[in-house]
Write a structure and sequence with these properties.
The protein is of the alpha+beta class. The chain contains four helices and six strands.
Amino acid sequence: MTDTPVPARAAPPRSLKDRFLHPRRGWFRRALSWGSTVAVLALLALGVFVAVIPALHRGTALNVLTGSMQPTLKPGDLAIVYAVDSFDDIAIGDIVTFMPYPDDPTLVTHRAIGWSTQADGTRLLITQGDANNAADDPIMEKQVRAKMAYKIPWIGHLLQYSDFAKPIAVVVVAIILLAYSAYALITSVKRK
């Protein structure tokens, strides 16, 4: 006697009541999945634009604290600046970061508006904030640190409290990423 295979029965169509009471994957879970994916991708993109790209160009991110460059830069914006080696890397109209006083670590980011020359032939750069009425004191080449490449609006507000919040933020982001990874792993194992 031979065994004859029994044809598989098709699952009966699910009623509307079954779909709402026992959803296979409801709208909330789909929305949560999409939302978490978008949030993780946004965090990764932000990390690339704030840390990775500037690191490749000897740059850094600077938090804008004052309104001297409004409307171009507002307080709370993040200015991404790349290091410059000499005045040759700067053109009129560029936004530059400099130390207003030699050997003082305070940094100012203003627009280059002109050139000047001292009696001994030393070239000086003249800068001014877009919202300021007067130019800054001329600066020497050794005072210039960087030139702005691009800005990221509003992110500086988050980083303003980074000395206090950075350790907490790192732990929170790590926990969220680990929880999301665990959730994704468990759901993929359950499906298989």
